[in-house]
Write a structure and sequence with these properties.
single chain; mainly alpha; 12 helices
Length: 255
């Protein structure tokens, strides 16, 4: 729910909702008893959608995102068997959201397209925001902007800025950032509101992320050193083998 960010600053929203890496599982020494019980229940009846949903929820509660997604994917194509519309919506939304968070962008979009657009305002807002992200992540600028326009339609500028912050990274990747930004500028000017410094904050945050992508991380440097060392070692090994072969041929000629 986007309304939970209303009291947060735009910078905090950016920090809370954007990421430059895949979702990571929470450190967990062992599975909880509740997860083991849910696993046992699903093992007894592996096609029960309620038990699939329950086990997925248990994994999610423990911060085990990939295990949760694996379980939800077992029931994705049978989600129409979930009678309750709200439960079915949340099941598919979570499967799409986790796929997106684990950088399985095509899968996220495929699942998202199976979701029936909700009518409840709060559910619709979440649906439109996720739609903006998954369409943008798949490079569809037109669809991403269409979902973004609907997500911010009728909202106050403060709420709109927070929605923009949530989807800004994906819009930037898709090349739709400037178009979405212009929408916010027009809203601010049309409403005769003071210039919004929050836009500048989002710009600075996105620029910072772009610069950090170009920087070499310690892990990358370590990998490059290892690869370089292996390459040099192989080069000298081949030279040594060539030298041995040359000596062998030379001795044969002398005989």
């Amino acid at each position: 729910r986007v309304d939970r960010f209303d009291e947060e600053t735009v910078v905090d929203v950016l920090k809370l909702t954007t990421r430059s890496t895949k979702l990571k599982n929470a450190p967990l020494p062992s599975l909880s008893n509740a997860v083991w019980e849910a696993k046992d229940e699903l093992t007894k009846d592996p096609f029960d959608m309620r038990k699939i949903n329950n086990l997925g929820f248990m994994y999610l509660r423990d911060g085990q995102h990939d295990q949760c997604l694996n379980v939800l994917m077992r029931g994705w194509k049978r989600s129409n068997e979930i009678a309750d519309e709200s439960t079915r919506l949340r099941f598919l939304m979570k499967a799409s959201e986790l796929s997106f968070g684990l950088w399985k962008f095509r899968q996220a979009l495929t699942i998202f397209r199976d979701i029936i657009e909700p009518s409840h305002p709060a559910e619709l807002k979440s649906y439109l925001i996720l739609g903006t992200q998954v369409w943008a992540s798949n490079g569809d600028v037109s669809q991403a902007l269409k979902f973004f326009q609907r997500a911010v339609e009728g909202e106050a500028l403060g709420r709109t800025m927070r929605i923009f912050a949530i989807v800004s990274v994906e819009l930037k990747k898709a090349g739709a950032y400037e178009a979405a930004r212009s929408t916010l500028e027009n809203m601010a000017n049309g409403g005769a509101q003071a210039p919004c410094t929050d836009l500048s904050l989002v710009d600075a945050f996105i620029e910072g992320m772009e610069k950090r992508k170009d920087q070499v991380s310690p892990e990358q440097m370590q990998r490059w050193i290892i690869y370089g060392g292996v390459g040099v070692g192989l080069f000298f090994l081949l030279l040594f083998l060539y030298w041995l072969e040359s000596r062998s041929l030379a001795s044969m000629k002398l005989k």
